[in-house]
Amino acid sequence: MAHNCLEESSRHAEIEDPSIPLVTSMESKLKGLHPLSSEYCIYRVPKKLHQINEAAYTPLRVSIGPFHHGRKGLEAMEDHKWRYLQNFLQSTKKGMAEFVKLIKNNEGKVRQCYAETIDFHSDKFVEIILVDAVFIIGVLLRHSLPYLADENDRIFGKSWRMISDIKRDLMLLENQLPFFILEDLFEEVTLQSQYESLSMIKLTHNFYKDSVELEENLRSTNSTEVKHFIDFLRSCLNPSKPRTEPQRGKIVKDIHLRCATELIEAGVKFMVCSNKNFFDIKFENGILKIPHFVVTDETESLLRNILAFEQCHYEAGYISDYVAFMDSLINTRKDVELLVGKKVIGHWLGDSEDVSTLFNKLGKEIMLDSNEFYFSRLQEDLDDYCNSNWHKWKANLKRDHLRTPWKEDIKREAVEFFQELFSSTRSYTQGQGEVKGNFEGSLEFQKISKA
Fold first, then answer.
1. What are the two backbone dihedrals, phi and then psi, of residue 345, each rounded to the nearest 5 degrees?
2. Contact between residue 286 and residue 295 where contact means Cβ atoms under 8 Å apart
3. For the chain, how many helices (H) and strands (E)?
4. In this predicted model, which residue has the larger pLDDT, 367 or 193?
């Protein structure tokens, strides 16, 4: 009787206050919110970037982590992952329970690395992380120690294209695992004497150093600061030297570098330098020295994923600055052909037009802070050089006259003109009690005479 009275009272309350169901629903959603974490480092690619080139952010062969798990077309590699897990258990001589417990103990920390709530229940989530982490360790070990790969290994026993696709898939922003969980599992591998000199950092560097043109010697890297593979690659590509501030009193209002063709016309010369770090670009004595950069089929995907990560996670967008520099340098296929001729750029794409299109598209998608632009001092120095009337005149003289059949006549006239000009100037200054330097002994006079 009392129970019926309570139900009737509740119904009367709902009739009196129709907002109660909504309040209950909203309070339930509030209870379901996960606490904010400072550990976020694995993101979905922003929609505005994803729409431009979805393929650049989507795995071809293998899903890693929860975002793409179960994606249609990637099922074939799932069976191979379990074979790697089986081999891992055999080589470490430990049971499944021990590794499941390791992941379980870190489940909360792993979940906090993803920038959105993961809907998989605990057991399924732990399974995904364990299987995928062991797969990554297996791939890296077999790459560094080829004798570990079985002749029937689907990745290493077949076409080189397979391992190339795997490398690409492992550097997608949405296809990442936290680096710390890989290291925790790898500690079990290094207990075996033949692997004790290895580390996840060394294996990762060795895995990517050729395809991404990393520096041969691994920089001093604290593995606790590495968040995942994309973060590791970004840190390897980042500048080895701090940004050089613009000259005192000068403010960089906007970012505008001349393209390669315009720089050549202004008298700038290009030279490839031996340094592998992208940012070791120097401008000295009219020569712009740039490290060699090879554009491959994977370049767009690599750059897009690092750019997306920078936009989501970091204030300093070093790779964004580099792409902006290359986009300014390359406007058309003519700029690409010029840089290819100088050995500054190499590419495996169809033609030079594809390279210019790549950088022009990337350049439109990045956000830059002109006050923090890494190449602001370089831009300043190039502007000063190109705006110099002397350098403009010298470049035009060489381009328009000294390469014609009348080269010797034009050159003679130019030399005679400057001799007369400076002779008059010297006579005047001597009359004022001053003696200026002899123009005929100057470096610029010698350059024109020998042109």
1. -125, 140
2. no
3. 20, 5
4. 367
Q: For residue 181, what are its two tokens? A: 């969980």
CA distance 36 to 14: 34
What lies within 8 Å, CB to CB, of 41 at 6+ separation is: 113, 115, 178, 227, 228, 231, 313
Q: Which run of H or E residues covers position 358?
A: helix 352-364
Residues 356 and 362: their CA atoms lie apart, in Å, by 10
User: Which whole number is the average pLDDT over 286-298?
Assistant: 93
Q: What is the arrangement of strands in the sheet containing 287-291, beginning at the earlier edge strand?
A: 269-273, 287-291, 282-284
Q: Which residues pair with 270 in a beta bridge?
A: 288
Tell how far CA 188 is from the center of its chain: 31
Which pLDDT does position 184 carry in this prediction? 96
Does residue 431 have a pLDDT over 50?
no
Whole-model pTM?
Answer: 0.80
Which two structure tokens, joined as six digits, stand for 98? 């021990």
pLDDT confidence band for 165 (50 / 70 / 90): very high
Q: Which residues pair with 271 in a beta bridge?
A: 289
Q: Which amino acid is at 8?
A: E
- How crowded is residue 130: how many other Cβ atoms within 10 Å of its Cβ? 20
pLDDT at 310 over 50: yes
Please give the span between the terminal C-alpha atoms of the chain, in angstroms, as a whole number: 112
> Are the C-beta atoms of 107 and 122 separated by less than 8 Å?
yes
Q: With b meaning 16 or more CB within 10 Å and e meaning fewer, what string describes 266-283?
A: bbbebebbebbbbbbbeb
DSSP state of 133: H
